[in-house]
Amino acid sequence: MKKEKFKQKYGPWALIAGGSQGIGEAFARVLAMKGINLVLVARRKTLLEKLSVEIEKTYGIEVRIISADLAESSTIKIIEDQTKDIEISTLVYNAAIVPIGRFLDSNIEEHQKVININCRGPAILVDYFGKLMKKREKGGIILVSSMAGFQGTPLTVHYAASKAYNIVLAEGLWYELRKHNIDVLVCTAGNTSTPNYIATEPDSLGIFVPKAMVPMKVAKESIAKLGKRPSFAPGLMNKFATFLVRRILSRKQAINFIGRSTHNMYGKKL
Ligand SMILES: NC(=O)c1ccc[n+]([C@@H]2O[C@H](COP(=O)([O-])OP(=O)(O)OC[C@H]3O[C@@H](n4cnc5c(N)ncnc54)[C@H](OP(=O)(O)O)[C@@H]3O)[C@@H](O)[C@H]2O)c1
Q1: Sheet hosting strand 13-17, strand order edge to edge
Q2: 14-to-81, 154, 164, 185 alpha-carbon distances in Å
Q3: Is 52's pLDDT higher than 70?
Q4: For labeling, which of 17, 48, 87, 151 is most exposed (least CB within 10 Å)?
Q5: What's the number of domains the chain is made of?
Q6: 16 contacts 145 by C-beta, under 8 angstroms
Q7: Cβ-contact 194, 21 below 8 angstroms
């Protein structure tokens, strides 16, 4: 889509929940390149400040930052207050936590955090910004999910379940909101070399698991697919892996296949 047309449909502002590093930062850059002003939400203020100054300088757009915790129910009020005077026509919900370990070795507080950040957060922001977009009859919503959400996944059981929630949420919204000229896309990313992914220090991925992609490629490819389909797996190898686990393997085989690779990545550390 040409830059001017893109700005008309998805601008003048976009909000990225989890927009200070990794895939969220990459979405910020790609949208900035297209002339969209940004509201970046994340917890670490200094990181947000540094990034916002650099993006404003590099791309010549406006950036607002909101330092807030998406796990807290009070955060939506902060976001509402700080975006009242601007028109947000694109929402990217990217923030997520990925606790690695066995489900029963964790605790209920951690499980609730997964639900709050990975599931309640997107539901609340889609509800708020989706209604505003509906009034204006235009907009775009991207939920960043994961290939982990295609099937049950050991060692990241709750994370994978939360990502399945995002896939199904976005697919339903894609159908419901298209008549209001609002495009919805779920990005089912595979391994991506973000600060969070690198910090997990995965061991061997095994030969069938695609190597980590760079975040900019994930964001660029996803933005290009917004308005064209409900879901998208960036990267050729991830597309192949998606085809394998969703179309070729039985559900049981897919769980075992992904289970083995997750154990290869993290099993030795636990
Ligand atoms: N990296 C991968 O291999 C991979 C693979 C598949 C899917 N994904 C998906 O891609 C998305 C981004 O992953 P990533 O690897 O880029 O993560 P990341 O490097 O940890 O970045 C996450 C972003 O979200 C923010 N964030 C996290 N918790 C938050 C909270 N409670 N409140 C507000 N902001 C919060 C972080 O900033 P603060 O920490 O400062 O808050 C940061 O800006 C996630 O949805 C993930 O499921 C990633």
Answers
A1: 63-67, 37-42, 13-17, 88-93, 139-146, 182-189, 231-232
A2: 16, 35, 24, 15
A3: yes
A4: 87
A5: 1
A6: no
A7: yes
Helix (H, G, I), strand (E, B) or coil at 66: strand
CATH number of the domain bearing residue 162: 3.40.50.720
In a domain, 1, yes or no: no
In a domain, 186, yes or no: yes
Pocket of ligand 1 (CB under 6 A): 18-24, 41-44, 47, 69-71, 94-97, 117, 144, 146, 189-192, 194-197
Say whether 118 sits in a helix, a strand or coil.
helix
Instruction: Please tell me whether residue 140 adopts helix, strand or coil conformation.
Output: strand
- Tell me the one-letter amino acid at 155: L
Task: Give the number of the atom of ligand 1 that is nearest the alpha carbon of residue 117.
Answer: 31
Annotated catalytic residue 159:
yes
221-269, pLDDT tens digit by residue? 999 999 999 999 999 999 999 999 999 999 999 999 999 989 988 887 7
Distance CA 243, CA 16 (A): 29
Q: Identify the sign of the CA torsion 118, 25, 16, 166.
A: negative
**Domain of 209?**
6-269
